[in-house]
Design brief:
The chain has 13 helices and nine strands. With 425 residues, it is of the alpha+beta class. The protein has three domains: 89 residues, Acyl-CoA dehydrogenase/oxidase, N-terminal domain (Butyryl-Coa Dehydrogenase, subunit A, domain 1); 103 residues, Butyryl-CoA Dehydrogenase, subunit A, domain 2, CATH 2.40.110; 156 residues, Butyryl-CoA Dehydrogenase, subunit A, domain 3, CATH 1.20.140.10. It has a four-stranded antiparallel beta sheet with strand order 4-5-9-8, with no helix packed on it.
């Protein structure tokens, strides 16, 4: 059924559903938080908006120059957002994963590289917070992180193993009086040159199996980096994900006491897939908002829907599916995140890994649809409706821990998974 209505000086004929989505002066997607738990702005939300404003202002320069988003990092430190997950007792704010996801979603709308840096940092903080136990050395490190707003980088890929983060070549070498050292050829350390510390995987000892890993935290005074690979990538250019030879030394107390196998399943993978997904959802939301703005602009000027308008509907629907996928996975993880037995089940591990695959593919789909909605205006780099940077950034999603690797690893478990007998199961 078609309707005719006027809005200001515009008269439009078209599908009622489409007109409602595209022509009405709704709140832009870029202002919508990923979680609707609280409708009232909080202090954290205001601080995040301040950072997002800075990040958005410099996003093009960061992308064009493939440079680190130093202005946004400064704003993150000024707003003390790097320590929001750290327990209050150690100088932080004890915020949870849902809050972190919202921050990643909002920053992703402003600058994908800034959002990904924040996400990677918080993944490492989560590993420390959730698995340090009563380790005084690591507690002191978190206190310093809160006081000085330290930025932590991650080193989990190495040598020929590439994306197989459950295998390490370089071992921890133990010296006298609790001293340790490590030298590893890291194929990627995102923003390594700009970080204040690195949290890295390593073989437990020289005689340990490659899968017998530990996670160890080093601060900048503990290590040196020698660049072995530069970063000139299609997207996520500001993450500066270069390769380095990492040479580090410290004390045995800097090793997180729990085995990395447990950290990986209980914290590393869930936090990574949910926070990365939140970043990608933010990028997609920004692209859809631009598509909406483009179509509204065409309506104002001509009173006609552009040819690509149906693609905006597709983009918005895909974005809603993406947000629903992440919200469902987030709730499920929050319900069992302190239950090691449930986290170790085949069902949970399959779900959380497939969440990454689904989120990355949906994000690419939403951004692609948004570009098609804008047509040439979205394709051009010199247009106010350009979606080129969004598309280049989001295309990193399926290859950050390659989806094909995940799907191949999941094949045996998928074959054992029963088909639900009810839609509500």
């Amino acid at each position: 059924m078609y309707h005719e209505f006027s809005r200001g000086e515009i008269t439009v004929r078209g599908s009622g559903t489409l007109i409602q989505i595209l022509a009405m002066e709704a709140e832009p997607i870029a202002e919508t938080p990923a979680s609707q738990a609280s409708q009232a702005p909080t202090d954290v939300q205001g601080r995040v908006e301040a950072v997002a404003s800075v990040a958005a202002r410099h996003a093009l320069a960061v992308d064009n120059g493939a440079r680190f988003p130093s202005e946004a990092l400064k704003a993150l430190k000024v707003q003390r957002l790097l320590s929001i997950q750290v327990p209050v007792a150690l100088g932080g704010e004890s915020l949870g994963l849902g809050d972190l996801s919202d921050v990643c979603y909002r920053l992703g709308q402003a600058c994908a590289s800034t959002a990904m840096v924040f996400a990677m940092h918080q993944i490492k903080v989560a590993c420390l917070v959730r698995h340090m136990g009563d380790n005084a050395t690591l507690q002191s490190m978190l206190r310093r992180l809160g006081a000085d707003q330290l930025l932590l980088a991650s080193s989990t890929t190495e040598g020929q193993g590439g994306g197989n983060i459950r295998s390490s070549e370089a071992p921890i070498v133990y010296g006298a009086d609790g001293a340790i050292s490590l030298e590893r050829r890291a194929s990627v350390i995102s923003y390594g040159a700009y970080a204040d510390g690195i949290v890295t995987t390593a073989r437990r000892a020289a005689d340990a199996a490659a899968s017998d890993q530990v996670l160890v935290a080093f601060l900048k005074e503990d290590y040196t980096l020698a660049r072995i690979q530069t970063w000139d990538a299609l997207g996520m250019r500001g993450t500066c994900s270069e390769g380095y030879t990492l040479k580090a030394s410290g004390r045995a107390g800097q090793i997180i006491p729990e085995p990395y196998e447990d950290i990986h399943a209980r914290t590393m993978v869930p936090f990574a897939h949910l926070l990365w997904g939140s970043v990608w959802a933010g990028v997609a939301a920004s692209a859809v908002a631009r598509a909406q703005a483009f179509i509204r602009n065409v309506l104002r000027l001509s009173g006609q829907l552009p040819p690509g308008a149906p693609q905006c509907t597709r983009a918005l629907a895909t974005l809603r599916t993406l947000r629903g996928t992440l919200s469902t996975a987030l709730r499920r993880y929050e319900q069992c995140m302190n239950d090691p037995q449930t986290l170790a089940t085949l069902d949970f591990q399959t779900m959380i890994n497939l969440t990454k695959v689904e989120a990355s593919e949906l994000a690419v789909g939403a951004v692609t649809n948004a570009m098609r909605a804008c047509g040439l205006a979205g394709y051009r780099n010199d247009s106010e409706f350009s979606i080129g940077r969004h598309l280049r950034d989001v295309l990193s999603a399926p290859i950050m821990i390659n989806n094909d690797r995940i799907l191949a690893n999941l094949t045996p478990s998928v074959l054992l998974s029963p088909i639900a007998s009810s839609l509500r199961d």
